[in-house]
Design brief:
Number of strands: 12
Shape: elongated
Structural class: alpha/beta
CATH topology of the largest domain: Rossmann fold
Radius of gyration: 25 Å
CATH superfamily of the largest domain: Response regulator
CATH architecture of the largest domain: 3-Layer(aba) Sandwich
Strand order of the largest sheet: 2-1-3-4-5-11
Number of domains: 3
Strand content: 15-25%
CATH class of the largest domain: Alpha Beta
Distance between the termini: 76 Å
Helix content: 40-55%
Number of helices: 12
């Protein structure tokens, strides 16, 4: 015989069991609401006895807040992104907000996803690495929903942005490789639409130029492991071969190292130096010991989430642009120069 679904326990039931008002029950389950410890304990005891769970949908209708945040990103295979997702999730959960995940390919239909986001009636949008044109950025502002872009920047003054100093990270790489005696430096770029990749490349070019050198070749890896592998094979299809490769992400740098060792029989760093960007956990693994540029993930997430929450709570949509410093991490995948390079 099929079991019947139990009727839902309401806040009124809890109030009657605890001997308090229904509003007291509501305050007990509302973050940072004012309620005495004695009353709270009575409500929680009654709720546990009755098996009560607050209805977040009903509460959102009353408060006109869904307490949800849309997190928009492009993909999760790049090891840097799961780090940000995890830290952002924990930060928002601590503030009693829930995340709705929207995945948009870098060259995909963001406008169509934007419609889904608006229909979800989210309180704010944290945009991570999704392509965002100025016209779509303007549309976000017009909706009246706070938006913060993390790990990217766009040429639009109305969107708050938190990202790393990609230019000076690239500048350090260029000067470091030049001072290490490298003369045929290749750049493995991310997506052409990616501001992070462009700024890292410009920094590389200027860092090399400061030492009288040039970037010899640019290959397209699109932040993708397989494309980075194929790009590495093309770089070594005919001489002159690179003696150093700067990959725009650790994800691609690992693909480069695997390809050099497995497919091409090259030694790292004796034959080819490899430098990445991000300092994801795999960079420190003994198999790679990757020299890289560390992005301050914790600080980036903290500043981006705090900025978004401030805009939600205060209705303050004044855009802020925050650039965070990066840190060179020296391991063993690149030949070290006799002296340390400057960053600018």
């Amino acid at each position: 015989m099929p079991m019947k679904r139990k009727s839902a326990v309401t806040s009124r039931d809890v109030a009657e069991r605890a001997g308090v008002s229904q509003s007291a029950v509501s305050r007990c389950f509302s973050p940072k609401a004012s309620i005495s410890e004695k009353t709270k304990l009575k409500v929680l005891k009654a709720a546990k006895e009755l098996g009560y769970r607050p209805n977040s949908i009903a509460r959102s209708l009353i408060t006109r807040s869904s307490r949800t945040i849309a997190l928009v990103l492009s993909h999760l295979d790049n090891m840097f992104y799961p780090l940000v997702v995890e830290k952002a999730s924990l930060r928002f959960q601590a503030e009693d907000y829930h995340l709705l995940l929207f995945v948009v390919p870098e060259e995909g239909d963001f406008a169509g996803v934007m419609d889904s986001i608006l229909q979800s009636q989210v309180d704010g949008i944290l945009m991570m690495s999704a392509s965002l044109t100025s016209s779509l950025a303007h549309e976000c502002v017009e909706t009246g929903i706070p938006v913060v872009l993390i790990n990217r920047n766009v040429d639009f003054a109305g969107i708050s942005q938190v990202y790393s100093d990609n230019y000076h990270g690239g500048y350090w790489v260029g000067s470091y490789l030049a001072m290490g005696g490298h003369e045929r430096v290749a750049y493995l770029a991310g997506l052409e639409s990616s501001s992070t990749s462009r700024h890292r490349y410009q920094g590389l070019v200027d860092g090399l130029a400061s030492m009288g050198q040039q970037c010899q070749v640019v290959a397209q890896g699109d932040y993708d492991f397989e494309r980075a592998r194929l790009a590495t094979l093309r770089l070594f299809a005919e001489p002159p071969y690179p003696d150093a490769i700067f990959a725009a992400s650790d994800h691609m740098a690992v693909a480069v190292m695997e390809t050099l060792r497995t497919d091409l029989g090259r030694r790292v760093p004796e034959d080819v130096s490899v430098i990445g960007f991000d300092d994801t956990p795999i960079a420190a693994w003994p198999s790679y010991r990757l020299t890289t540029v560390r992005q301050p993930v914790d600080r980036m997430v903290e500043e981006a989430t705090a900025l978004l929450l401030k805009q939600i709570r205060q209705g303050d949509f004044n855009a802020e642009n925050r650039v965070l410093p990066v840190t060179p991490i020296l391991r063993h995948s690149a030949r070290q120069p006799a002296r340390e390079p400057v960053t600018d």
